[in-house]
Specification:
The protein has three domains: about 260 residues, 3-Layer(bba) Sandwich (FAD/NAD(P)-binding domain), CATH 3.50.50; about 100 residues, no CATH class; about 130 residues, Polyamine Oxidase, Chain A, domain 2 (Alpha-Beta Complex). It is about 30% helix and about 20% strand. It has 15 helices and 23 strands. The strands form six sheets. It has an eight-stranded mixed β-sheet. Helix 5 packs across helix 6. The protein is globular. The termini are far apart. The structure holds flavin-adenine dinucleotide. It holds the Pfam family Amino_oxidase.
């Protein structure tokens, strides 16, 4: 088993692993080995400056005369992955580093837009559920006050035949009409019997669904819903990515619940979740970026990578600057990276990866939040009476996600499309955020998508025809979901090592393309672990062992552990952490400022 690590392992690790239990050695020895090898690599004194210290690179040495700026580690992208890498390098205070982003703010796909009317929208439903203490430490350091966060209990349903079936659907078939209950139980019994004699693994996601949930649940919910989410048929997806993500029904409990007419309890890893009180999900990443030194961050034109020259180990930027690097951590989509490198072999390989586009649609509504909506968080829609697969009641996450009640806004139109009053009136307001997927296998009528979505909200009784729409939002994110296709692993196992041989670490949601480790916490840790690997050869657990990471709380690495061997001032034995500079205003999608009220002003 240890052999599978050898590709990414330094000598120390492979020796240790040969003689001891792998998992124990990874968990128990990681912090000590990190300390020891960092100390050995960098000596006792260390002050970080650009190009202060060269780290060894596999094939080339940076020629400092070839570039305007030279660093040991260059990070492309200030989404969670890039920020994880930067945070770790900043903490280690060893190799010199610099971080770039083509956008004017940090956050990437975990950003938040604000409409001109003052409604906030994330890139679809983003909630924090963390598998890592280090991740928690970093976001808590960035947003340290109690009132920076709200904690919510997940209240989630599936819309089916006009009913709200509690999530997860497959555990709550007791809520379905009788004929559907019979279909589902029938399929569950068949699948349980077949599972007893099956001696092969399911060959794809579709077979996995059939084996786990049976024909009835597959036809009613799993197949149509997953096609709506992924924009590819379930027969084209593999099933290794699933791990903890899909609830497997227990036939005895399901049958008992049907007979007793009971609802199954809260399931899964995100049964409770927290959400930032202000500035949406994007506020977290702006605050994390604010904990890093200003002179090591470049945004906009000054941070836009136009070319990567792997031979010369330089990166060209849109403002004409060239940056020489020892190691490159790239978090842009790996197919885009291949294009920037101009290497035909890599471009062709990366074309074997599949992705879907995510459309995010927001609807701001005047009025008290209706009873039918209540405190619902997010809702799933498997049927074809609406284009969206998920709706989030974004106004339920924070009272700062929409304008305050006293704000006066005109009505754009009523939900049924008829003209409303153009006179600006006060709120209160509430909002819905919708997600629609698109791919070459699932085209979308983009031009009419907003209109069709609002009609879908009426069809599913989320909106009444006479509801006053005061704000709308529609933005599409070309790379939204990295699809776990049957071909994915074959491509990644060739592509990522080829890049790494050139000292390029492609990591992140689309950098390393593994959906199962593509959430914010995973992405952040992909960056942290890439930095650790570069500095001292530590194993990248998240990249290489998703199941291991996803089935435990990863608490070994902590932010308060000091890996800084320079004599920095300490408070109560731990290193002084940088203070947070909160953005006092927010730039909106169209460039206007959005002022924020303090928590005391909002009820
Ligand atoms: C619809 C949807 C729902 C999600 N829901 C959740 C959720 O509930 N919980 C959760 O934890 N996560 C969720 N995620 C995942 C989360 O958004 C990702 O984990 C995270 O944003 C990925 O971070 P990243 O840094 O790998 O990539 P990105 O966020 O994509 O960051 C890459 C960065 O690289 C920059 N870049 C690209 N090209 C260049 C260039 N040429 N030059 C310079 N910079 C460049 C981009 O501007 C960007 O900032 C969701 C994502 C989506 C799309």
């Amino acid at each position: 088993m240890c052999d599978s690590f050898s590709e990414f392992q330094p000598v120390t690790w492979s020796r240790i692993c040969r003689t001891s239990n792998l998992i124990n050695c990874l968990i128990l020895a990681l912090p000590r080995l990190l300390l020891a090898s960092i100390a050995a690599s960098f000596g006792a004194s260390s002050t970080s400056s650009l190009s202060s210290r060269k780290i060894s690179s596999r094939n080339h040495h940076v020629d400092p005369t070839m570039a305007d700026i030279n660093v040991d580690v260059l990070i492309i992208g200030m989404g969670p992955t890039g920020l994880g890498a930067a945070k770790r390098l900043n903490q280690i205070d060893g190799p010199s580093w610099l971080i770039l982003d083509s956008s004017e703010k940090a956050g990437g796909l975990a950003s938040t837009d604000v409409t001109p009317e003052g409604f906030l929208y994330d890139v679809g439903g983003h909630v924090i559920f963390s598998h890592y203490k280090y991740f928690d430490d970093c976001i808590d350091e960035a947003l340290p006050k109690e009132d920076d966060w709200f904690t919510h209990q997940r209240i989630s349903y599936v819309r089916y035949k006009g009913l709200w079936v509690p999530y997860p659907f497959q555990n709550n078939i007791s809520m379905l009409p009788k004929e559907d209950q019979v279909k589902c139980i029938d399929g569950l019994i068949d699948s349980a019997l077949e599972c007893r004699v099956a001696n092969t693994k399911p060959k794809d996601f579709d077979e996995w669904i059939l084996r786990m949930t049976g024909q009835g649940v597959a036809d009613i919910f799993m197949r149509p819903y997953n096609y709506k989410v992924w924009a590819v048929p379930t027969t084209k997806m593999q099933c290794q990515w699933l791990g903890e993500r899909v609830a497997a029904p227990d036939i005895k409990t399901v049958t008992k619940n049907v007979i007793l007419n009971k609802v199954a309890g809260n399931w899964g890893p995100n049964a409770t979740f927290r959400f930032p009180a202000r500035d949406g999900t994007g506020g977290i990443w702006i605050a994390v970026a604010d904990t890093l030194p200003k002179e090591k961050k470049r945004f906009g034109k000054q941070g836009t990578v136009t070319k990567v020259d792997a031979e010369k180990k330089t990166v060209s930027l849109a403002d004409g600057t060239t940056i020489g690097y020892g190691k490159l951590i790239s978090t842009m989509a790996v197919d885009h990276l291949a294009e920037k490198m101009g290497k035909q072999e890599l471009i062709s390989l990366s074309k074997g990866l599949f992705y879907s586009t995510t459309h995010v649609i927001g609807v701001g509504v005047r009025g008290e939040r209706p009873e039918r909506i209540g405190d619902k968080c997010w809702l799933y829609f498997p049927e074809d009476n609406c284009p969206f697969y998920r709706a989030t009641i974004f106004s339920n996450y924070s009272p700062y996600n929409q304008p305050q009640a006293g704000e006066k806004l005109p009505t754009l139109y009523l939900a049924d499309g008829t003209k409303g009053s153009s006179e600006a009136k006060e709120g209160p307001y509430w909002s819905i955020m919708l997600e629609v997927s698109e791919s070459s296998m699932k085209p979308v009528d983009v031009e009419n998508l907003l209109k069709d979505s609002i009609q879908g909200l009426i069809n599913t009784e989320m909106l009444k025809p006479e509801d006053e729409v005061v704000s709308t939002y529609h933005r599409s994110f070309d790379h939204g979901y990295p699809t776990p296709t049957l071909e994915r692993e074959g491509v990644l196992k060739e592509l990522l090592p080829k890049l790494q041989d050139m000292d390029i670490y492609s990591r992140g949601r689309f950098g390393s393309w593994r959906y199962e480790v593509g959430n914010q916490d995973h992405s952040f840790m992909l960056g942290v672990e890439a930095a650790d690997h570069i500095v001292n050869g530590a194993v990248e657990l998240t990249l290489n062992y998703p199941d291991f990471i996803n089935t435990r709380q990863n608490g070994e690495r902590r932010l308060a552990q000091s890996y800084n061997f320079s004599k920095k001032p300490e408070v109560n034995g731990s290193a002084v952490l940088p203070t947070r500079e909160r953005a006092s205003s927010k730039v909106t999608a169209n460039g206007t400022a959005h002022s924020r009220k303090s928590s005391k002003q909002v009820k």
